[in-house]
Amino acid sequence: MTAPILKLSGKDEGISVTVESILSGADSPEKVYNCIINIFPDFKMGSDITHPELGGAENQTLKDNGLSIQGFLMLLHKQQILDTALDSMSRNLSSNNTEFEILRQAAISGKISFNIPGEKPLGGLIIIRLEGNNLKDWIEAATWHKGRDSIPRSVNDELSMDHLGEATTWI
After folding, report:
1. Which bin fits 116, alpha (ψ -120 to 50), beta or left (φ > 0)?
2. What whole-number distance in Å separates Cα of residue 78 and Cα of residue 72?
3. Residues with Cβ < 8 Å from 46, sequence gap 6 or more?
4. pLDDT tens digits for range 114-134
5. pLDDT given for residue 33 in this prediction
6. Angle subtended at Cα 131 by Cα 64 and Cα 3, rounded to the nearest 5 degrees
7. Which residues make beta-bridge pairs with 65?
8. What residues does 150 pair with on adjacent strands?
9. In whole angstroms, what is the distance from residue 22 CA to residue 159 CA?
10. What CA–CA distance (Å, rounded) separates 145 from 79?
11. Across all residues in the chain, what is the average pLDDT?
12. DSSP category for residue 87
């Protein structure tokens, strides 16, 4: 019998989830919103967002907090990218918060693709911030999979990706 997938939402575990995406130039607020709700269905777009006009581009931010991260975690399990998620989600981890980015271009298709830090990809980014006590342990639990019984992983272990997002190996 296989173990059930861990169904964490963040909300009931003391994890605060904030999601934002910066609109620039001619970015359509509705299209960016649709990208976000593919990953975070409970995201709400504020009513003060304006549409860009020819010659009048504005930089704006779509932002919501107090969200459930359950849909995001389910996609990580479905795509089988849990080790990549562990590394990406913990790259900027401090004692009780972290921030990481995923690509809007992948999110439009309901997929998750983590951004390599410092890159500015075509299509923009969705920024995710997590805050809460014991966040390191929570991330390890949220990204756990059966393969870790054979090859254990933890935050900042020798198996983590390098600064360019490349896989590392151990000897």
Report:
1. beta
2. 10
3. 62, 63, 64
4. 999 888 998 999 999 999 999
5. 94
6. 100
7. 18
8. none
9. 32
10. 12
11. 83
12. H
Three-class SS of 117-144: CCCCCCCCEEEEEEECCCHHHHHHHHCC
- What is the Cα–Cα distance from 2 to 35, expressed in whole angstroms? 32
Q: CA–CA separation, 112 vs 130, rounded Å?
A: 17
According to DSSP, the residues that pair with 130 across neighbouring strands are 17, 98
Q: Using the structure block, give the residue that is written with the tokens 């890159």.
A: 119
Tokens of 33: 């919103």
pLDDT-derived band at 67, boundaries 50, 70, 90:
very high
| pLDDT on residue 59 | 78
Domains annotated on the chain, with CATH:
11-149 (3.30.1440.10)
Q: Which two tokens stand for residue 125?
A: 């980014």
Hey, what are 116's tokens? 């390599």
Phi, psi (rounded to 5 degrees) for 144: -70, 145
The type of residue at 155 is V
